[in-house]
Amino acid sequence: MDIESSLRDWDGETVIIQYDRATGAWIFVAIHSTRLGPAGGGTRMKPYPDVEAALQDALRLAAAMTYKFAVPGIPRGGGKAVIDVPTELDPQSRPALLRRYGELVRQLGGLFYTGPDVGTSSEDMDIVAETGAPYVFGRTVAAGGAGDSGPITALGVFAGLQVACEFLYGDASLQGRRVLVQGVGHVGGTLIQYLRAAGAEVLFNDIDDAAIRHFHNELGLPFVPSESVYETECDIFAPCALGGVLNSDTIPRLKCRAVAGGANNQLGSLEDAERLWARGILYAPDYVINVGGAMAIPGMEALGWSQAQAEKEVVQSVQKALRQVFAVAAAEGITTEAAARRIAEERLQAGT
Ligand code: PHE
Q1: Does ligand 1 have an atom closer than 6 angstroms to the CB of 138?
Q2: Ligand 1 center to 61 CA (angstroms)
Q3: Whole-angstrom distance, CA of residue 243 vs CA of residue 196
Q4: Quick check: CB of 121 below 6 Å from ligand 1?
Q5: 0.90 surpassed by pTM
Q6: Where in the sequence numbering do the catalytic residues fall?
Q7: Ligand 1 contact via 42 beta carbon (within 6 Å)
Q8: Which of the four CATH numbers 3.40.50.300, 3.40.50.10860, 2.60.120.620, 3.40.50.920 does domain 3-64+75-141 have?
Q9: Over the stretch 168-226, which tens digit does the pLDDT of each residue have?
Q10: Is the separation of the CB atoms in 77 and 31 below 8 Å?
């Protein structure tokens, strides 16, 4: 889609665009909604096939943040930043780029709060915060932040998998359940630890050689090559990599009972929720179960929650929201995605 129609068709509020001349990177900050509070969302940093794709990703990810905060009633709006970097970006120019991005965040004066996301780390947030404070969450513990948001996001996703099992099998235990984790980064990698501790049979896919070596050679987990991910039989398919993996091409091939994972924007389009529904595959809406980092990191840094308190909040709120989503969907014969949207829209309408 071209930039003009992407922007015209989007239902959000504001997009800030900055071309970083020094590196050739494009920075997009998409503010989807400030209805419930100042917009918050991570900073995604990676090369995109073209500028349109980067903008499109920022717009969709920002909308997902709006729903993510609205479902559990967190007083924050939805936003997201995408830094589309050239493939050949010199690693030495990265810190300065992050500082210039931090300046932009500071100039926004609290319209947008950020944290880590795909392609950025807590160490990167330390650098962004040099110029972007006090609007930067998820710095390292050494720098006074709450650290990596991946593990606590994984904890919430794991709670979501338990609720899915409860709904499917009448038993929340993951003992003996076969779970395929796609993407073993900060969220997927930690999810695997929880799954193994719970006695699940874990299979995984990734495209990174070092990650494959670690999880396959060292931990002995079966590796599923990318070309067979969607055909592999399992109880739960857990997408924890990039978005758009549930679409008209992949859904007909799935051999799972449920999809529940940490990746943002798993559905290619809203019709894909109907496709899953028609196939009898239970879908845990991504923004309902991956709220952990976005909830806990600001909670610990701005509200003074302890780690234990943050974990409790995340687990309880994912459980409560997902049970409600499944119940509404079943009672009304609508998809779980439609049920989650409805819960979010009701809060957005009410403004609290
Ligand atoms: N990457 C997180 C998400 O997609 C966003 C986030 C993490 C925001 C940590 C603030 C702090 O939900």
Answers
A1: yes
A2: 11
A3: 25
A4: no
A5: yes
A6: 80
A7: yes
A8: 3.40.50.10860
A9: 999 999 999 999 999 999 999 999 999 999 999 999 999 999 999 999 999 999 999 99
A10: yes
